[in-house]
Amino acid sequence: MSAKEPSITRIRREVREGSFQIATTVIFCLCMASFVVILAVFINDHVKKFMVSEEFYYPHLNIIAPLHPWSPSSHFHCNSSPSSSLSSMLPSNLSVTHSTLMDWISPKDLWHSMTDEELLWRASMVPCIVEYPYNRKPKVAFMFLTRGRLPLAPLWEKFFKCHEGLFSIYLHTSPEFTYEPPQSSVFYKRRIPSQPVHWGRVTMIDAERRLLANALLDFSNERFVLLSETCIPLFNFTTIYTYLMNSNHSFLSSFDDPRRIGRGRYNKRMWPTITLSNWRKGSQWFEVSRRLAVEIVSDVTYYPVFQEHCLPPCYMDEHYLPTLVNKRCPELTSNTSITWTDWSQGGSHPKRFVRRDVSVTFLNRVRFGFNCTYNGVMSSICFLFARKFDPSTLEPLLKIFPTQFGDSHRCSVMINPNH
Question: Which one of 25, 132, 338, 384 is CB 3.0 to 4.6 Å from 251, fit for a cystine?
Fold first, then answer.
């Protein structure tokens, strides 16, 4: 009996010691688990902050042009993910941490390394806050689609003179064209990164969308006019600016043409995305509001269909935009063009005007010889621009412009965008 007692005592002691070790191990494991949980929460919190910070998306990079507050009725979302190659969009002279609002709302340098895909994505952004946090002065974007030099540039210089801050200029030229006008010129460093353009091909629409997208990067651009090197203004800057800013509609012609050169160009392979009843025709030379410009650059539904199935004798520059507007937002346009062209001679190209054609009588006939509707009221001013004018017309136009077109040669004229 006495021999067994030490054994029982020893067993009890071992049990107590084992229980203590187990308890110690359990407590240690619980402490380690708590530490791991706390550490995980700490790391997760900081990783989230890092992931959503600008430094994560734009490490040591710079911001290009602004986001754009335009119509609140636009269907676009304000949340977008950065492009995987966004770094190629960003200029090297604007630090994220030192940028100001003015650095965002108007790019100082038009040249960039964005692809068309990146550019259109960037230009299609719409922020959720519509109110402008600065004193915004709306501008007209004049977009020139040209092969090279502008032979009528001196006329346009007179037109723009003294109206700085109310317009922007964008030049889409042949890629090999590298001439830069003098620094004093309004066309100085206004070329955008361009691609080859061929008449009647999809590259023409690509160039137009490229111009619109670059112009949309400037917050202040409110109206967008497509012009060629043969275009001239028919009125002074004040008249054209006021006409466009006060218009309730864009000026992009879109009509149903039952002829062979209209409906006859429709390709049945476009169905069901585009039906014959959707098919429209119109002038290539347009003027659009900011909201409609965004609709054009953001289209990924109809453009691919046209790209694949609208081939000569179907010409995208005559059908794509008219059909797109008819499908998406027909209420935004007046279905007319404000660029006058003389098609009276027939054929694939309009009449070209030379030196002997230019006179005050001729210009006034174009300026006031038509009737149209402007904001629901009859008007005799239907065209603001005209084409096609040969370089030989420059001299007589320069002589006529100061006396017939009013304020463009005076710097005392002030424009109130609200009137």
Answer: 338
* Cα distance between residue 281 and residue 263, in whole Å: 8
Q: Per-residue pLDDT tens for 94-114? A: 444 345 777 777 888 899 999
41-52 confidence digits (pLDDT tens)? 566 555 444 443
Q: What is the DSSP letter of 412?
A: -
Q: Where are the domains of the chain?
A: 87-409
CA dist 42 → 33, 36, 50, 299, 410 (Å) = 14, 10, 12, 44, 66
CA distance 77 to 90: 22
Q: Find the helix or strand (DSSP H, E) in which 340 lies.
A: strand 339-340
Look at phi and psi of residue 82 and say left if phi exceeds 0, alpha if psi is from -120 to 50, else beta.
beta
Q: What global pTM score does this model have? A: 0.76
Across-strand partners of 291? none
Q: Which of 372, 392, 390 is CA-nearest to residue 381?
A: 372
Task: List alpha helices for 53-149, DSSP H.
Answer: 54-57, 101-105, 116-123
C-alpha 15/C-alpha 22 separation (Å) is 10
**How far is it, in rounded angstroms, from Cα 309 to Cα 322?**
16
